[in-house]
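anyone seen this seq b4? input:
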Amino acid sequence: MHIFYIHGFLSGPNAMKATLLDQYIKGLSDEHLVFEALSFSDIPQIGFGQIISKIDDFVSKNPQESIALIGSSLGGFYVSLLCARYRCKSVLLNPCVHPQDYFVHLSGPQYNSNTDCHFEVDQKMLDFMTEQDHNMVVRDEFMQVYLGTQDEVLDYRKSLVFYANCDILVVPGEDHAFSHNFKALIPSIMDFITQPL
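predicted toks r here
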């Protein structure tokens, strides 16, 4: 199984959660489990296409290999879209629900220190996210959702409603980054991912 990690807004492939997941999976010494944190553009209408291209390329070259997706924040929104495309196990970590409603308040110049990229949140970006949001099909049978009750960036209650039919695990006291004890959640994440569909 190839596990793709998709990071959130203003984050990167070397983020804390990606690093801990990579370390845990390598520690299992299971040659059938491979972890890859994807690198992609901060601009959604570019980055989302890059993500699809990379996963499509892997799937076409490895047709017998199963895949799984893990997405954090905006990456959780991307994974929600991709889950319907690939029909694979998908884990969402404090996913961004209806991101256009959040990003409208961030309009203007942005800088991602993780990728050293300057870009701008503009109307094209908002229109793209709105279009993708309207086209989303939530495949709840493939999804597991982790929500921190002390998320200081996103209102976790919106995800409780939006993903109501999914397997939801509410983590009391955790923040947006799951910075308190994300490591403790990884065994549960891996149990879900590695269970047969």
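The two ends are 13 Å apart (CA to CA). Residues 45 and 124 are 8 Å apart (CA to CA). kinda curious what u guys think
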